[in-house]
Structure formats: structure tokens, C-alpha cells
Amino acid sequence: MSAQVRFFLILTVVGLSIALIWPNLGERTIRVYANEAAAPEKREEALQRVEKYVGQNYAAKYTAARKTAKPIGNEKAAEESFVSIKGKFVQTAFLNELGRLEGIDPDRILLEPMWVEEKLMAKPFKLGLDLQGGMNLVLEGDFKKLKETLERQYPPEMLAGLKKQLETETDPEKKKNLTNKITEINNAFDFTPQRKKQDVEGALEIMRSRIDARGVSEPLIRMQGEERIEISLPGVANPDQAKKLIASTARVAYHIHDPAGEAGRLTQEANREFGEFQKLTTDFQRQDFVRKLEAKLKFPKTLGIYLSYDKRPNAKGVSELMATEFLVLENQPVLTGDQMSRNVYATVDPERGNFLVSFELTAAGADTFGKVTTENKGKLIAILIDNKVRSAPRINEPILGGRGQISGSFTGQEANDLALIIKEGALPVPMVIVEERSVGPTLGQEAIDSGLKAILFGLVLVILYMIAYYHASGVIASFALVINLLLMAAIFALMDFTITLPGLAGVVLTMGMAVDSNVIIYERIREELRRGKSVKLAVAAGFERATLTIIDSNLTTLIAAIILASKLGVGPIKGFGVTLFVGIITTLFTALVVTRAVIEWLAYTVEVKSLSIGFGKHRSAGKTPAAALRGGKV
What we know:
Layout: H1 3-20, H2 22-25, E1 28-34, H3 40-57, E2 63-69, E3 80-87, H4 92-99, E4 104-111, H5 115-120, E5 126-127, H6 129-132, E6 134-141, H7 143-153, H8 156-168, H9 172-188, H10 193-213, E7 220-224, E8 228-234, H11 239-247, E9 253-257, H12 262-271, H13 274-278, H14 283-296, E10 303-313, E11 319-330, E12 335-336, E13 340-348, E14 355-361, H15 363-375, E15 380-385, E16 388-391, E17 403-410, H16 412-424, E18 431-439, H17 441-495, E19 498-499, H18 501-530, H19 535-565, H20 571-605, H21 625-629
Transmembrane segments: 7-25, 451-468, 475-495, 501-522, 543-564, 576-599
Membrane topology: Multi-pass membrane protein
InterPro entries: SecD, SecD/SecF_arch_bac, SecD_1st, SecD_SecF_C, SecD_SecF_C_bact, SecDF_P1_head
């Protein structure tokens, strides 16, 4: 490869690298719009809220100003007011924070595209939770709880009765329906490893839909083993609300309560013990208390004790969902969330002003609901969400329209979340949080600052050492090191790679390793010069002998990096492996192309008579080895 070709390649790579990382260096513009459905005065209040929020919390980093223009990508639309925020290094956490402000449409927080994004697919750096804050959860399928729920819904007596009925049934159609029902129940209790994996994978997809619908940018959702799911949510402002949304089984079901019958009598007797129940502190104690109470009162298998919940002020005066009484219901639900259509939405009761969830039933669900409300006139129909009674209205007349509402002292956010959960469907298996890690945005910023300081400090120390030891040749090595960092950053931007703290550690390690190749080259050249060769011959022989050594020395580290970055490495280890792998590739390029191009240009084009290549013996072209040993310069 000629010197001209090498320099052209270097300039092209450097220019392309700068373009790829420009979204992180240049100023970005964010457009923030209010909800279109809100009244004009509400939209105005929302935009003012954004300006105030940015001014109070991010004045040193961003500037916010009100503007009016047509929405991006919709030139035919009318002009609309928005808040224009300008700043550098915009991260997902900041966008997610803006999306949670009251009155703001999270789907219309838009980064104006830069030309390098449109033409070169350049992207801003993605930072992990440890650098920008957020929440990381690991959830596991709770198949024990699922089995208990199924045993309550399908008691052994029910299955035995169906089998007995099947033996005596003669009608082919009814016999077929009974067979299908028995098969359905048996399959529900078939907890094979394959079934468990399928249920957890189904839960993952539902969780992904819930998270995407909430407008969380750049979430990471993946399987961890066979029965666990790992979820990373950057910039989540309310971890408790996020956990409720993600892990909620939200099994919406309707159960009948007959206040005039046995259920009403048992409810009164059970509630005499409710005071003792409230003194209990753990879930195990409460579940054990309910089981013993059902045995004490000799409950039939068809009935069970359920808890009714309502919003009450706690000791601090904050409204909280609390258990208020026992309610005895039929264990078999008369309607489930599966029979609701996807047309579910939160709304406000115009008379009372409280939030409701309105829904439409499927055709089969509408028939079932109509039949149930007709046959149970005068009884209560309890609405259970996650096995908690949230509302129990009386059936005054048949409901035949295929529409209904769920009420239960909801806030606006709770109503929206419930509508979303019903729309996406219940999780196939309850999920419990087995690991939780939260990083605040302040701590994340401190980690970024510390990481950048470490990189800068390491870079300066390496440059000072190389210049002090190798003199002018050390300057060339330092130039190659800066290009090395630039190439790494460009590759990370092109890969859409998420940078974490271990990843930054890999960058710092790469800087120390990157000059090793230059050290090998320089020592080889010095050996040739000591033998009395001219600068041209010494440079040619030095690179020829050093190339294989450099490749061999980096190959072993490259293999280790590939293993860490493959499926054998997870989480932080994988991030470290990727940065190490990229660093080795860029190191080989800068050592064998950049450093070689500069030194060969000095030797062949400029035709220097000596090289400033550090302490020790020096060699000038034309001097004999003896003369060099007496005091020449290399």
C-alpha cells in the first residue's frame, strides 16, 4: 500500500468517524408537544410546565424556548405551539422525564434529525442504567401461586364431577364439550419445563407491549435462563408505578355474591374476625388466617373469602389502597378479562367526576354477560383485579349492550394503567421480582464524570510517558492513540452499542494496550538502526518484523474478548468484552496503518537522516555502527 493510499484511507476514516459521533458533539434540538386531545388552556399549562422544569433542573445544560411551527414530518398539518429545547449529549433518561410531565404527549417528544443521522445512520451514544439512571428488574415466574389459583378455580370435586358426567352422557355434542373441558383443565395443571418456558416467554411479550405503550425509550427486555425475565428501564422516574405496571397479573374477573343466601351469611360471620386479620403483618400470615377461617366456618368448595379494597388515608394522610372487609364470593368467575375486546379506555364519570375504565365485550362475552346479569338480578357482581375486590355493584337489571365500566377509586394514572393492562391481556403466569436495582440520575452523572476523567487522565499519562521516552516518535504514537479513541467512539455509535461503566473500563484498558504495538515497532526499528542500517532500511525491516509479533500478541486477547462478548458473557461482562474487542481492532489499524504511514512518510518522502526514537543509541544514515556507538542520534 503506497503512502498516498494510506493517508487517503486515514483521512477518510477520521472524517467518517467525526461524522458518526457528531450527534454527540453537535447541538441537538428537542420538540416537546402537549396532548392534542387536551383543551387549549391545558396545553398551554403543560408547555409552561416544561419550560419551568427545564429552567429549574437543567438550566446549565439545556435552554428551552416556546416556538410555533408545523409538526416534523407532516408539512400539511397546521402550525402548533411546542417547546424547543437545545443542548448537547441528549440522553434517553431526559426524554423519559419530559414524557412524564403532566399534559405532555410522550409520543411527541421528538429529536430533530441531524443530516449525519439521515445520511450516515449516525446515532447518539446509548448509556446504560449505571451511567444515566433508571431501574433494572429480574422477574421470575411464580408457578406455585398459579397452581394455587387454578386449584381454587378448578377444585378436584369439579373435575371429578365432569368425569362422572362424561361417563353417563349420551349426547355426542355435550360429550364432546365435556371432553374438551376436562382436557382444558388437565392442560392448565401441566407444568412441564416446556410449558413453563412458553408461559414466561408469553409474559415477556405482554410486558414489552405494556412498556412500549407507556412510551419508555430504549428499554431492554430479555429472557434470563428458562423462567426469568430481565428488564432495564432507563430514566424511569417512578419505580413503584413501573413495577406495578410490569409485574401486575391484572386478572380481571367477575364473581357473583348473593347477599341473601349462604354467601351473605358467611360474609357476616367472616367479618367478625376481620379485626384480627388486620393485625397480621405478612402475606403468609394473612393467607394462613383465611384458609383456617374458611375451614372453621365450614365453607363449601364453591365459595371463598376475598378481600375488598378501597382508597383510605394512611397514617401520613396519603391516600392508599387498603383492605376494608371480607366478601364471600363464588370461586368460579362468571366473566374474565379474556372476554373483553381491545376497545378499553379510561374515562371520567360526568356525574361524580371519578375515573372509570370503560370496556366492550366480545360477541361471546356479551352473550355471557347478558345471561349472567339476567339470572342474577338483585345479587352483587364483584369486579376483581389481581384477585382484589375493587368494586361490587348490584345487578338491578340485565346488561345486554355488550358494554361495561369498572369503578374503584382510581386516579387518572391508575385508570390508564388498568385500561392498558386489560387491553394487552393478563400475564400467563404471575411474575415476582427477585432482583431490583435502581440508579438515580445524579449518581449516573457522577459515574459519567468519573469515567470521562479516568479516560482523560489515562490518555494524558500515556501521552506524557510516550513523549518522554520516545521523543518525537512518541508524538506519532500519541497521535495514533487519539485516532484510536476516535475510531472506537465511531464504531460504538454505528453499532448502537449501550455503553456501561465496565465498557468505559474497557476503553481505559485499551488505551494502555494500544501503545504496546507502537513500543514493539519502535524497538524493532531501534534494533535495525543499531546494526548500522539506514533509516529507510531500518523502518522497512522494523515494520516487517514487528507486524507478525503485533498480530500474535493481540490475537490471544482478541479470542478472550470474543468469548466475553458472546453468549457466554452477560450484562457488564459482555459490555467489557465488546469494548475490548473493538479496542483491539482499532489498535491494529492505528499501529499498522496510521503509525506506519507517518513514519514511512518521514523516512521515504521527507528522507530524514535520523529518527528521534527515544533514549539509548541513535543511528543516522551513512554512519557506521562504530560511529553510532560513539554518540550518534536515532
